[in-house]
Amino acid sequence: MTNIKKYNLFIMISTIARNIVEVFSSVLLYKMGYSLKEILLFFTILYFVGGIISVIVIYLTKYINAKYILILSSMIFSISFYFMSTMDKTISNLIIFGIIYGIGSYSYHSLRHYFAIKTMDKERKKEIGSILIFSNIGLIVAPIIVSYVTKKLSLIVLAIIVIVLSVVAIIPLFKLDIKENNKIIKYQKIEKNKLLFFILEQAKVINLSLQPLYLYLFINNKIEYIGIFNAIMGVSSCIFIYFFVRKIDDNKYFKYLNILFCIILLLKLNITGKYLILVIGFFEGLGIKMFEIVSAENIYNIKKDTNIKGYIVLVEIIFCFTRSIFCLIGYFINDIKIILYISIVLIFIISFIKRKEVKDIS
Prior knowledge:
Elements: H1 3-22, H2 25-31, H3 36-60, H4 66-86, H5 91-119, H6 124-152, H7 155-170, H8 192-218, H9 223-244, H10 251-268, H11 274-300, H12 308-333, H13 336-350
Helix pairs in contact: 1-5, 1-6, 1-7, 2-8, 3-5, 3-12, 4-5, 4-7, 5-12, 6-9, 6-11, 8-12, 8-13, 9-11, 10-11, 10-13
């Protein structure tokens, strides 16, 4: 089995485990009695901690094998969800959950990007597509598990499932045949347009984080419905990757597709029919994955002489602190529709950012 196949197995299983929490966290917190403002406070803390922990984790790889750090990350992530499933509704518990969740989540994300870059060969386009397909399988399965378990069983059972999957996901990583490079970590300069793309792209992440809560509040207040919506998006995303992944290079092609994606997001905020929203979810899944393909290329297409760890540190700092600032602004706005409208405007602006193709990739 090749390195990329082993990595894909890891990404599929870990995506199932982590999206059980990531996709539904806003809804589960709301069902526990937390307000929108408190949920946005949680996300602000989560991403702020994520930015700090991303730096710490990369520096720890100089002394500890990254695979062992991921084991610890999985344990902390599992503990965070178990804590949420048993905690009382208090602000202090929400803050504690945000901190633990941030540590468990972003110690994973920074190393996920690191291993992705290390396992790729020269066929970056094809391998980025395969990674996204396997992650989408996880995105399809996760909401189905959540919908069934929360309806038939309990959050405790769901927490146990997360723990088991998180541990199993690490096994393929120990089979990877890559050379760990513990040389000096140097911060990398990121090209201006790529930096702007990275910053504005976080509006899409915030949109996706709040989307389940929006559906719960305004469309259908059942976890199963949100699960079906996300599963439909996952299926359409796989279709898009399989048929169109090789056509995303063209800046003009991305520009018009992204504008169409923004129109779809606007339609979703102005339609209340629950079945029509599912149809929109299918087309939204196409748009999201088109967006993520371009995003993944921006992250993974790097020059041969790039200091990978230094690059990943800077990327994660940009991602996390931008998200934290966006959520803090949302905290003061305290209106989910206005926040989602603002995120769509920022996503729309991305359509006009020119991207440079990196030819001498590592």
